[in-house]
Amino acid sequence: MPKILEGIGCPYCGCSCDDVRVVVSDDGKKILEVENACAIGTEIFLQATNHERITRPRLRQPDGSYSEISYDEAIDFAAKAILDAKKPLMYGFGSTTCEAQRAAAQLMEIGYGILDNCASICHGPSLMAFFDNGHPTCTLGEVKNRADVILYWGANPVHAHPRHMSRYAIYPLGFFKENGFTERTVIVVDPRKTDTAGVADYHLQIKQGHDYDLLNAFRMVLYGYESDIPEMVAGIPKQSILEVSKILKRAKFGVCFFGMGLTHTDGRNHNVDIAISLMRDLNAVSKWSIMAMRGHFNVAGPNRVWCWTYGFPYCVDLTKGDYAHMNPGETSTIDLASRDEIDLFINIGTDAAAHFPIDAVKKLKKHTWITIDPNVSMAAEIADLHIPVGISGVEVPGIVYRMDNVPIQYRKVIDMPEGMLSDEEVLTGIANRLEELILEKAKKYCLDSSESISSESVICT
Ligand code: SF4
């Protein structure tokens, strides 16, 4: 009899929907049906068992081909590479569990490396603005039950977060919003006529890169400087700004969801900073929250795990040994790569080769490149070593943080192919092997007697 699993988490976008229903074959090896997920989420589950998988690590040979090696050999290779590297960097983690992110932190502590995650090229500016200005926020449950005005700024959830509107923000019937979308006003600020803009009550088709100007104009209205606002701001007529300002002020519970269109246009963290300030001003007359539209299902996870471990959410430099520090621009992956400071790159749970500027990829590729990922991505294809692992959220259970920073326990749906390891197991294996190597090196070069030393007591120079 096929098994029916309820309340499964979807391992794709930052909505982290945990109401998916999956039907698994009676031998537990194949996913037969998926319900409640969007088209993308459904494919994530179905593709997990319906395509050829690489199930063993592959090491690049001198002739450029790959040859299969065992997990032990792969772990040994990775540990030796970290030991030999002056500045190893581990990047990615959008599609890994928090358990793997914690294991990675332990590994980079032992290896004196740098930890960075996808926020470095997506919501890093948002995190910097949160440092500077704080941010009033809420959970997606509160949005569903209370929100009457939804403002999407530089985000297109119809395509990037397909169930955001139907599960949380616009269409669901909430406790205090029993009539769903008929009780909500939707405003979209976007330079393009996106499909999200197509369902909005108001679409402010802003001039690209002028977000700061428009946010400032809204603040001027709130502070009573309407007469000083020019007839046109950022491509938006003054009349529309005044009209939308009234809706913002009258909201009983408004939420601003912002995406890359705000964080990666001119101004970057300053755009988010002034958006937060607008929320603060609005909270003097109504009730508003603000939330980043995080991309992957657990891209928020490393930010939380590393914050509680080191106090920093991304670009965490552990090379000093005694303390961690973070300085985007100095310790961020693209900048380090562009300056050719990284001599070992470990890509995990993302595809850096597909997302980074080509110059950064070329610089990283000059040195050893290891990819830990279930999929044959571009980052896997150019790697010196590709270690395939179980698919988080499908074959590997664990904690993930939704875009509103609510932790959710994801369950396993099917078993990994026999003999495969999870990313947490691989990272822990590398850390253990690295400790052995450090101890061996210490015995060989540093001390005469190995009787009284442990890896914790050794500082290899
Ligand atoms: S909206 Fe996102 S998390 Fe939800 S089912 Fe679709 S891809 Fe999965």
From TrEMBL:
CDD domains: MopB_FmdB-FwdB
CC terms in the record's Gene Ontology section: membrane
GO biological process, one term: methanogenesis
GO MF term list: formylmethanofuran dehydrogenase activity; NADH dehydrogenase activity
Family matches, as SUPFAM superfamilies: Formate dehydrogenase/DMSO reductase, domains 1-3
Domain of life: Archaea
Keywords for the protein's UniProt record, in alphabetical order: Oxidoreductase
Keyword Oxidoreductase recorded: yes
Residue stretches making up the Molybdopterin oxidoreductase domain: 53-222
Keyword Metal-binding attributed: no
NCBIfam families given in the database record: one_C_dehyd_B
Protein name: Formylmethanofuran dehydrogenase subunit B
Source organism (scientific name): Methanospirillum purgamenti
